């Protein structure tokens, strides 16, 4: 039997090699498990804010406003003053455009990634003092303090939102609906055509509707 320097034989060393190789395999396995697990957690953290709204009763998907839609919104805001809120502000382009023409504008958005991106865009455009963005669920906010409200909604939510805004908004408010009109309110103005159409509802639209419902 051959002897290895130091007095150990091959039979003595072989089990140690096997144990060391097994230990290395276990370590690599643990490392791989950690990497895969960490990746899945990271992917879940990134994807959840996008998936979660779709799991809610009323889905408000992120579809960026076109330049024509932004232009139409600004057109129906001409002559208006006061505060402005964009419900479901997405990447912030409506809020930023409103801030550029003199509004103190606020955007509420459930997706934190879009909120952070909107804040960056507002800073890049130099209007971060007048364009603010917050992570929040629109159904948990009161809009009573705003005189101008913009909403890019979906048909399934418009009836419930009509009721909410009708109860909360003040006498001088204007609501601007993009892509889809409200089901019961009668618009005072409309601008654009097709998917770019916006409908403007002044306070008498929803206040009259509210009075009729109370009779």
Quick structural gist:
The chain has 215 residues and is an alpha/beta fold.
CATH superfamily of the largest domain: Vaccinia Virus protein VP39
How many domain units? 2
Tell me the span between the first and last alpha carbons. Answer: 107 Å
Average of the residue pLDDT scores:
78
Mind telling me which CATH architecture of the largest domain this is?
Answer: 3-Layer(aba) Sandwich
Number of strands: 9
Radius of gyration, in Å, reads 29 Å
Largest sheet: 7 strands, mixed
- Widest beta sheet: strand line-up: 5-4-3-6-7-9-8
Chart the SSEs and their pairings.
Layout: E1 3-4, E2 8-9, H1 10-51, H2 67-76, E3 83-87, H3 93-100, E4 104-109, H4 112-124, E5 131-135, E6 148-152, H5 155-168, E7 174-178, E8 189-191, E9 198-202, H6 203-214
Parallel strand pairs: 3-4, 3-6, 4-5, 6-7
Antiparallel strand pairs: 1-2, 7-9, 8-9
Describe the structure.
46% of the residues lie in helices and 18% in strands. The protein is of the alpha/beta class and 215 residues long. Strands 5-4-3-6-7-9-8 form a seven-stranded mixed sheet. A two-stranded antiparallel ribbon has the order 1-2. Helix 3 links the parallel strand 3 and strand 4. Mean pLDDT is 78; it is low at 36-59 and 211-215.
């Amino acid at each position: 039997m051959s002897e290895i320097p130091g007095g150990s034989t091959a039979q003595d060393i072989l089990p140690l090699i096997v144990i060391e190789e097994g230990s290395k395999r276990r370590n690599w396995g643990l490392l791989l498990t950690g990497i895969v697990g960490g990746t899945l957690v990271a992917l879940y953290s990134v994807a959840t804010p996008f998936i979660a709204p779709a799991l809610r009763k009323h889905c408000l998907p992120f579809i960026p406003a076109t330049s024509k839609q932004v232009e139409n919104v600004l057109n129906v805001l001409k002559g208006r003053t006061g505060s402005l809120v964009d419900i479901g502000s997405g990447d912030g382009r409506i809020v930023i455009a409103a801030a550029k023409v003199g509004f103190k504008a606020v955007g509420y958005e459930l997706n934190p990634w879009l909120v952070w991106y909107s804040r960056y865009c507002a800073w890049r455009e130099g209007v971060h003092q007048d364009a603010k963005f917050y992570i929040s669920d629109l159904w948990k906010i009161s809009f009573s303090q705003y005189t101008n409200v913009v909403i890019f909604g979906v048909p399934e939510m418009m009836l419930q939102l009509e009721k909410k805004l009708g109860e909360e908004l003040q006498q001088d408010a204007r609501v601007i609906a993009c892509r889809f009109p409200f089901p019961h309110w009668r618009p005072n103005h409309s601008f654009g055509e097709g998917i770019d159409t916006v409908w403007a509802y002044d306070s008498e639209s929803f206040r009259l509707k509210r009075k009729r419902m109370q009779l």
